[in-house]
From TrEMBL:
Superkingdom as given in the UniProt entry: Bacteria
Similarity annotation: Belongs to the SURF1 family.
The protein's name in its UniProt record: SURF1-like protein
Region (Disordered): 267-329
Biased composition regions of type Low complexity, renumbered to the chain: 274-285
Native source organism of the sequence: Kineococcus mangrovi
Keyword Transmembrane helix in record: yes
This protein's UniProt keywords: Cell membrane, Membrane, Transmembrane, Transmembrane helix
CDD domains with a match to the protein in the record: SURF1
Spans through the membrane: 28-47
Pfam families cross-referenced by the UniProt entry: SURF1 (PF02104)
C-alpha cells in the first residue's frame, strides 16, 4: 500500500512541473503576479494617505480641548506657527483695532455664502494676533459686504482663541478691506492699508473661542458673528481602500492557483478514462474481443439464403412464359 501511494504521488508531481513549464500557464502566472504587484502598490499608497490624514488630524485631537496657554509661549514675535501647535488654545489680553477689520469673502456655511470677520487684537508690546471672530451671511441687497458688521467689545479684552496657520494665497480683485483667503501677505496688506501705524501681526491667526467682556450684551445690538464650528475628525476611506487593494492582490494569485488545480484535475480524469476504440471499427463485446481457442465456441456459419419466389406465380406458368420467348426469337 505504501508503494502504491508513492507511485500515485509521482505522476501528480510530474503533472505540476509540466503545467509550470507550459508557456500558456507561465504567461498566466506572470500576469497574476503583475496584477498583484500593482494592487499592492496601490494598497501602500492608500495606507500612506491614511497616515497623512492621521498626522493632519493629530494636532486637532491633541490640542483642541487643551487648557489655554499664554500666546507668547507658542507664538512669539517674528515666529511662524509650527504644524504641531495648530489648534492650541491661547490666552491674551489687548484691544481690538476695529479700523483694521478685514472681511474674508466667499465663505460658505449651511449652503449660504458669507464672510468671516477678522480683527487684530493689539497687545501692550505692539504685536497683534489676528482674531477670526466668526461668520456673517452675505447681505440681502448687495454681495459686496454683509448688511452689518457688529463691533467687537471696546477697551481691554481677554480673549481665548485657537491658533491656525495661514492659508494659501488666492489672487483676485476684491474691494478694499476684503481678502479672498486668510493668507499672511494678503491680510498684512489689508491691515497696513487701513492704518497709518499698523501693529506687527504674529505668524498665524486664531479662531475665537471666548472673550471677556463679551460683545452683544445689549438687546438692540447687532448679533455677533456665528462662532467657528469644531471640525470633524475623519480618517476618510483610505483604510477600507487599503484592505480592498491587498485583497485584490491575493485574489489574483488565488485565481491562478485554482485554475491550475482544476486543469490538473481535468487531466487526471482524462488519464483514468478508458481509451476509445480505433476509428472505423465497431466496438464488440468482451466475448468477441477474446482470442480464439480461449474456451469460447465459434459461431456457426450462416445458412444460405433461399431464393424468394414470386408470389402468386406457379412453376408451369413460368415455363410457358420462357417457351413463348424462345419461339418469338
Amino acid at each position: 500500500m505504501r508503494g502504491a501511494g508513492v507511485r500515485d504521488a509521482r505522476p501528480a508531481s510530474r503533472n505540476v512541473l509540466r503545467l509550470l513549464r507550459e508557456p500558456r500557464w507561465l504567461r498566466g502566472l506572470a500576469l497574476a503576479v503583475l496584477v498583484a504587484l500593482v494592487c499592492c502598490a496601490l494598497g501602500r499608497w492608500q495606507w500612506h494617505r491614511r497616515e497623512e490624514r492621521l498626522a493632519a488630524n493629530a494636532p486637532l485631537v491633541q490640542n483642541y480641548d487643551a487648557a489655554p496657554v499664554p500666546v507668547d509661549s507658542v507664538l512669539g514675535d517674528g515666529q511662524v506657527l509650527a504644524p504641531g501647535d495648530v489648534w492650541t488654545p491661547v490666552r491674551l489680553t489687548g484691544t481690538y483695532d476695529t479700523d483694521a477689520t478685514v472681511l474674508v469673502r466667499n465663505r460658505p456655511r449651511d449652503e449660504r455664502f458669507g464672510y468671516e470677520v477678522l480683527v487684530p487684537l493689539v497687545q501692550d508690546d505692539g504685536t497683534a494676533l489676528l482674531v477670526d471672530r466668526g461668520w456673517l451671511p452675505a447681505g440681502d441687497d448687495s454681495t459686496e459686504r454683509p448688511d452689518a458688521v457688529p463691533a467687537p467689545p471696546a477697551g481691554r479684552v481677554t480673549v481665548v482663541a485657537r491658533l491656525r496657520q495661514w492659508e494659501d494665497d488666492k489672487r483676485g480683485r476684491v474691494p478694499a478691506g476684503q481678502v479672498t483667503s486668510i493668507a499672511g501677505d494678503s491680510v498684512t496688506a489689508a491691515v497696513e492699508g487701513a492704518l497709518d501705524d499698523p501693529p506687527r501681526l504674529l505668524g498665524g491667526y486664531a479662531l475665537l473661542a471666548s472673550e471677556a467682556p463679551a460683545s452683544g450684551t445689549s438687546p438692540a445690538a447687532v448679533p455677533a458673528p456665528a462662532p467657528a464650528e469644531r471640525p470633524a475628525v475623519d480618517e476618510g476611506p483610505h483604510l477600507a481602500y487599503t484592505v480592498q487593494w491587498f485583497g485584490f492582490a491575493l485574489t489574483a494569485l488565488v485565481v491562478w492557483v485554482v485554475a491550475g488545480r482544476r486543469e490538473l484535475q481535468a487531466r487526471a480524469e482524462e488519464d483514468q478514462t478508458p481509451q476509445d476504440p480505433t476509428p472505423g471499427t465497431t466496438p464488440g463485446t468482451a466475448q468477441d474481443r477474446a482470442p480464439r481457442g480461449a474456451g469460447t465456441t465459434s459461431a456457426a456459419p450462416p445458412a444460405p439464403r433461399r431464393r424468394r419466389r414470386r408470389e402468386g406465380v406457379d412453376e408451369a406458368a413460368e415455363d410457358a412464359e420462357l417457351d413463348a420467348r424462345v419461339e418469338h426469337r
